[in-house]
Amino acid sequence: METKPPTPTAVLVGLQMPEVDDIAHEASLDELERLVKTLGYAVVGRVSQRRDGTGAAAVLGSGKLAELAALTGGTGRVGSMAPPPRSKARERFGDKAEATGPEEAETDAAPRPRFVIVDHELSPSQIRNLERATGAEVLDRTGVIVEIFHRHANTREAKLQVEMARLKYVAPRLRESSGGGGRQQGPGAGESTLDLDRRKIRDRLAELKEQLEAVQRDSDHRRSARRDQLRVALVGYTNAGKSSLMRALTGSQVLVEDKLFATLDTTVRILQPETRPRVLVSDTVGFIKQLPHDLVASFRSTLTEALEASLLLFVVDASDPTYEAQLEVSRSVLREIGADAVPSRLVLNKMDRVDEAGRAALLAKHPDAILLSAHAPGDVSALRDTIIAFFEAEMVEDVLVLPYARQGLIGEIYESARVLSEDYDETGRVLKVRGLPGAITRLRRSLAAT
Ligand SMILES: Nc1nc2c(ncn2[C@@H]2O[C@H](COP(=O)(O)OP(=O)(O)OP(=O)(O)O)[C@@H](O)[C@H]2O)c(=O)[nH]1
Ligand SMILES: [Mg+2]
């Protein structure tokens, strides 16, 4: 008979810096808890401490460290050189009354939390110290995010990008594997397993970089074919409702989930009902605070989609009390990739969860924002009108003459512009068109080419 493996459990650790208020601190731990749940772990406790910085050797002060170790069954001391302990004897360490869940204190078999997850980026030595003191496996926020991206990546490009980010995260955190004596026999003797592992990682990174460049040349090609088209990109914090809006606007079946980082790949679909010229809508990867730098870099190409859009819709979960901080995170990531020059509109989503007073406050603060719910068809259709109006304002009118010998281009003209009228004279078809200036320039170029 098959039994399901027990859900791994984790304790969260948060450091509250002087400039962070209680609400923001709790919200950050709530978010970490959602991230950890996305990984499939159950959170059984939280340990928080006010600190002036994140640099302490074992992250927490000695009292708090003992409190944490009592939960996880560690010694609470960093000093021991022993590998992270996981023995039954250690698991009995500490006062049972302090155990997190009541069920833990009751049965002997109840496992101690296997993971300690810290809401900050830690140095490799901090991770090591904390593992020694707690006897648990230690992950930091970055490690959790990298792992989620790793599990959710679907397309070849996303997989390559995530593997690169993951190796870059893992490499400095490698330590001598225990039991092997740290020395490699045979070829490469004299090189420690650690050096060997690091060399392997470097080689693999070089290989990945090459593969990624090939894939990206391909997608650059596809993207340039979409140049001068009417493109709008949905960007914003994870779980804000980008994919829900994408579905509603384009009738497509993109994944919508109440999970952080449900979407890792950019998808492009046509705005429905279709317009002339048609509008392309892109759904993109969500942002999160402290998005690991390597992941930002590796998603640059995915986000190029956003960079090349004519309009960015900044989607925000307006029902989230920390929505402003989330908006700021999204803005700063987009600044980092150079997308802050693209015209944008603020879309305050999930208004169905906001009461009248909240609505008035939001409007007072963001008078230009579009307030809506992705679940309300009327709201979505109004958003569609706003998108169309934006492009209308950008479009210009012009007259193109299509010589009789070049009739093959008619399809391209209809695709990239709206044909207002058609006449015939001795030179050819005379078309009055309306489209984006870039598209009309490109059409003129095609017509001029022989
Ligand atoms: N109440 C309410 N829930 C919404 C609304 N829009 C989206 N949601 C819910 O919010 C959750 C996240 O929605 P998604 O569309 O997957 O969010 P996303 O921005 O694509 O998230 P990532 O892909 O993880 O970055 C889902 O459970 C949606 O059903 C809304 O207007 N109102
Ligand atoms: Mg999504």
From TrEMBL:
Compositional bias annotation for Gly residues: 178-189
Record key words, sorted: Cytoplasm, GTP-binding, Magnesium, Metal-binding, Nucleotide-binding
Binding site for GTP: 236-243, 261-265, 283-286, 349-352, 373-375
Cellular location(s): Cytoplasm
Cross-referenced Pfam families: GTP-bdg_M, GTP-bdg_N, MMR_HSR1
A single GO cellular-component term on record: cytoplasm
UniProt region (Disordered), positions on chain: 76-112, 173-196
Chief location of this protein within or outside the cell: cytoplasm
Basic and acidic residues bias (residue ranges): 88-98
Cofactor(s) listed in the protein's UniProt record: Mg(2+)
MF (Gene Ontology): GTP binding; GTPase activity; metal ion binding; ribosome binding
Domain Hflx-type G, first and last residues per copy: 230-395
Chain positions recorded as Mg(2+) binding sites: S243, T263
Subunit structure: Monomer. Associates with the 50S ribosomal subunit.
Family per record: Belongs to the TRAFAC class OBG-HflX-like GTPase superfamily. HflX GTPase family.
Stored HAMAP family: GTPase_HflX (MF_00900)
Chain's role: GTPase that associates with the 50S ribosomal subunit and may have a role during protein synthesis or ribosome biogenesis.
Protein name in the entry: GTPase HflX
Gene for this chain: hflX
